[in-house]
Amino acid sequence: MLPAADVVELSRLQFGLTAMFHFLFVPLTLGLSWILVICESVYVMTGKTIYKDMTRFWGKLFGINFAMGVTTGLTLEFQFGTNWAYYSHYVGDIFGVPLAIEGLMAFFLESTFVGLFFFGWDRLSKRAHLLVTFLVALGSNLSALWILVANGWMQNPVGAEFNLDTMRMELTSMSAVFFNPVAQVKFVHTVAAGYVAAAMFVLGVSSWYLLKARDTGFALRSFAVAAGFGMASVLSVIVLGDESGYTTGEVQKVKLAAIEAEWDTHPAPAALTLFGLPDQAAERTDYAVKIPYLLGLIGTRSLDTPVTGIKDLKKEHEARIAGGIPAYDALVRIKAGEDTPALRAQFDAHKADLGFALLLKKYTANVTDATPAQIRAAAADTIPQVAPLFWSFRLMVGLGLLFLFIFAASLWFLVRRNLAPQRWLLRLAVFAIPLPWIAIEAGWFVAEYGRQPWTISGVLPTRLSASALDVGQLQFSLIGLVGIYTLLFAIEMFLMLKYIRLGPASLATGRYHGETPATETRHA
Amino acid sequence: MPDYDTLKLAWWALIVALLIGFAVLDGFDIGAAILLPFIGRDDTERRLVINAVGPTWEGNQVWLVTAGGALFAAWPLVYAAAFSVLYGALMLVLFGLFLRPVGFDYRSKLADPRWRGGWDWALCAGSVLPALIFGVAVGNLFVGLPFAFDEQMRVGYAGRFVDLLNPFSLYCGVVAVAMLTGHGAAFLATKTQGALQSRARRAALAASVATAALFALGGVWIAQREGLTVAAIGDVGAALSPLAKTVVPTADWLGNFRAHPTLWAVPALGVALPLLAGLLAHGRRPRLALTASAAGVAAIILTAGVALFPFVLPSSLDAASSLTVWDATSSHKTLALMLGVVAVFLPIILVYTRWVYRVMRGPVTPERLDADTHSY
């Protein structure tokens, strides 16, 4: 029995909410851990206490954020099983592997050493503690690597094959899964975006201290670390932007066409649509402002590869849906006991399109009796809503360019030793603190909303992936999750703001703003 | 590549080992948090309890996360069926677990006594709930869970959340809470001094004796409950569909013990070791008590695994849908690959975990708390 449509929608809502909520905390962990490594390395090399204080203060904020990352990450480890049971069965043979490796290789490392980062200052030598900090950073970043290998496989499922006897996808090549170009590009793009968020966080908070003229020595050094780290990261995000990952994999091609509102396939190299108003019903973009050649260059890294337009993709999908029907027909008859070599041959000939035939389940339980109209409707489902993707993508890119400007200006005035008078820049940096999170969530929205109607591109529709729960169960979990998350988020923000306001004085060293001994000048 | 049936057995052992790793390591910080509001009479004492587990609890919890990931990779059908059929229960586990990372980290960041008191109870509740529900879940394995597969391996359910709260399963939940409380108390006895330590020792004695008694009585109870056995199954060295086997009811879940009487040693240790742990704690040998307690936790969990074998997820709705070690696993290739990954990383994890415990060795004292501004 298929899960009810509203159960699927509620499960999607729950997964989207919990994943996006989790990803409010991940970027800071990814990036701040390296900033801690940088500060502590300077401390170990120079012996200057202020760099130890920087490590410990930013480490405190890291800890407040980390606790929420762990809390919200738990949900995701178990949610595939609770809400996406058929998905878990259907692709667990492949998808479970990176998740399990993530635990063994990365999450253990990160979590075992994070305690020592906080509690080990007096028990470890300087170098040993730096090693611990490095291992926390390495663990959190390796964690991202394996999660993105898993996610990349959802977008471009390579190295796997359907097994009729076990009714599931099975692993054929782990190296194909690991070196999946989509996964590799996503990893670099995602961690670099996390570094940008962390750099902007440190830059903005330091700017606030500078605007208030407090702890200036501490703030200026932190600002410098953040500006340098942020500049390198934002360049990586932009140069290694993940558009290059959009040429392989069925759903990736659709996403590329949708974020660029490419309705028709134009001769190569394709023009980039800068702005415009996508009209889904009429399949055209009004008032489009185009830059010739650019999309072809960015998207395909070549001058002669065309970018397939939405209308052509839809036609291709229509053919694949029709082509998958014989595979589904053979599958059902074999499962019913009619296991003949002829049917196995029929299945093998069409199994590449089995996933497309499963899209018809939404319209007819039998699949094999689908009418041409139903096939057309299922093909239309393979094209996500263009406008939200188009605009989210532009929001992300626009913010990325703003970050580039902020980091570049910050470095410029730092190098010229003329930062303090640039109050506009310091204010802009404070104001910009939340913006990387908006850009990151917009990016995830493009990647995952753009993946619909699939959970596994071309293999398994979302409609079939969900557990056959009832609405009441989803209501219970949604209310609980939203309630607890909201409460914890409010508490986290409260603590974060409180400790930012306290500043390095929270370390109780007696050296900082608001503390009694007047040793502040020594660092200024 | 090792034979498929060998790998299937190896993965049974590994999953059981990961669950034991979780219960033994995360078990004592769960137990410590359960005891927190009762054993710590003032703020300093409560901070001592929290800081006893503070530096290491985060790594301990990864045993649970990794067990989840390993279940997904090695037994995808179990991961899918168990977690969805236990939906409400698992959500409650999550809601409880949510309170722990933030509780440990945030509690001491403000001095306000209401704030701290609130987090103390949140930590306690966030630890009782998972312990109880994991116990209830294990109990329900013996009762059977209400799920069945269709021919395309889609899992369907019957029954409601309250059905999980049957007397036997609730009883198992109580055993789990007692077990982890005793284990947590034994750990606290190794990390504390003075009045707090003597309270921890008394708690360890009481909870461990209760665990042994409850576990033994549970054994008597289970002897009265109908079990399942596999009457016919295909070649266990090949890929098998769960629906292709024949499962029939038996008088009880003790068949494996009757077939291999040496296995009785496992439940016997499950009774004897907690008793020993309690006595050792009472006799001021906290480190030995903790070792005995850890071995006792392992014996109790292993007892459940051995009794159910080869079942890992019995179904009360359709006996043939019950999942076993032979037909719930990933492909031959995935099992072999993951075994290699575990063989490389598990020893590394054990080495660095041991190192972290060594660095953090020694009791927590009020003086140390005050000296270190990073204490919780």
UniProtKB/TrEMBL annotation, chain A:
Keyword Transmembrane helix carried by entry: yes
Localization terms from the record: Cell inner membrane
One term under GO cellular component: cytochrome complex
Membrane topology summary: Multi-pass membrane protein
Signal peptide: none
GO molecular function: electron transfer activity; heme binding; metal ion binding; oxidoreductase activity, acting on diphenols and related substances as donors, oxygen as acceptor
InterPro entries per the UniProt record, alphabetical: Cyt-d_ubiquinol_oxidase_su_1
Alphabetically ordered keywords of this record: Cell inner membrane, Cell membrane, Electron transport, Heme, Iron, Membrane, Metal-binding, Transmembrane, Transmembrane helix, Transport
Cited Pfam families: Cyt_bd_oxida_I (PF01654)
A biological-process GO annotation: aerobic electron transport chain
Family per record: Belongs to the cytochrome ubiquinol oxidase subunit 1 family.
Name assigned to this protein: Cytochrome d terminal oxidase subunit 1
Lineage: Bacteria, Pseudomonadati, Pseudomonadota, Betaproteobacteria, Neisseriales
